[in-house]
Amino acid sequence: MPLRLIHILTALALLVGLPLTSQAEEVTIPHKGLTLNGNLEMADGKSFKDGVILITHGTLAHNKMEIIATLQNLLVERGFNVLAINLSLGLDNRHGMYDCAVTHRHKHTDAIGEMGAWVSWLYAQGSHQIILAGHSRGGNQTAQYMINRQVPKVKAAVLIAPSVWDEETARKSYKSRYKVSLNSLLGKMNRAVLAKKGETIFNDLGFIYCPKTSVTAAAFVGYYGADRFFNTPTVLVRVKKPVLVIAASEDTVVRGLPKKMAGVVNAKIKLEVVEGAGHFFLDFYSEDVANLISDFVGNLKE
Fold it and tell me: What are the sequence ranges of the domains in the chain?
């Protein structure tokens, strides 16, 4: 069903006093020459004016992965409208996991602009109560958005096992996974970027989860360059809106998040730890996350 028709039916239902039923629809918007898509699901009896939770997935993933799809369903059951977006990762109308055979031209911070495009779209639909949520890398990107100039349109954010970073760990992790020095590769990539050759493609490199792939110099620097904002707790010190951080006690992907959060001195930040959960909050742990989000959003002051 086209989104425009959904809007018309919603308006008619409100006029005659009929109850609204849950509606799910893929929506698309243009952004920098690409088509962005997202899965929008409206809760029973709710419209855009009741607000929307916008969820962003993790590294090279998509909006139908288990944790995102499950949380969307659980939150809609709890009466929230939810938009789960697919980051483009430089591709037009992208769906599913990123194919490692495709050259990587995207950057970590591209997500911030795409979130901004979706926030503006939601605002234009009449949703002035926007909550951002993000999982893993998407949590860090959401945190970075929260110190972005467009943040006045957003009321609060929820970061679910958001990524952490430090230069030494990143260097050791890359060497352990790909048996190559990260510093030597970064030197080469940085020289290309400084020479205004950032779109130069390098082949057969390890990049994020892809063991042998092709990547532009700018993309490599965009994910592996020394940027302290890759560390979510560092970003959160600057956030001025309420943020709920949800950590998993048995997380083996984002390690030590609660300990790192101890250094964040900011009254706007709240930390909750789901005991026994892993990075993807599988099974009944997803219910715990949905309940924490529901309570957090419900307690926000108008």
Answer: 20-163+243-298, 168-224
How far apart, in whole angstroms, are the C-alpha atoms of residue 111 and residue 25? 22
Separation of alpha carbons 62 and 7, rounded Å: 26
- Beta strand extents in the chain (DSSP E only): 23-31, 34-42, 52-56, 82-86, 130-135, 154-160, 201-207, 210-216, 243-248, 269-274
Q: Which helix (H) or strand (E) holds 138?
A: helix 137-145
The CATH class, in words, for 20-163+243-298 is alpha beta
Residues 6+ apart with CB under 8 A from 1: 23, 25
- The two tokens of residue 267 are 């009254």
Question: How many helices (H) and strands (E) would you count in the chain?
Answer: 10, 10
- The CA distance from 190 to 198, in Å, is 8
Contact (CB, 8 A) for 265 and 234: no
Distance CA(183)–CA(160), nearest Å, equals: 30
d(CA 235, CA 226): 14
- Amino acid 151: pLDDT: 83
Q: Place 220 in a pLDDT band, splitting at 50, 70 and 90.
A: very high
In a 13 Å sphere around the CA of 110, the CA atoms on its Cβ side amount to 22
Mean pLDDT of the region 102-122: 97
CA distance linking residue 58 with residue 19, whole number of Å: 35
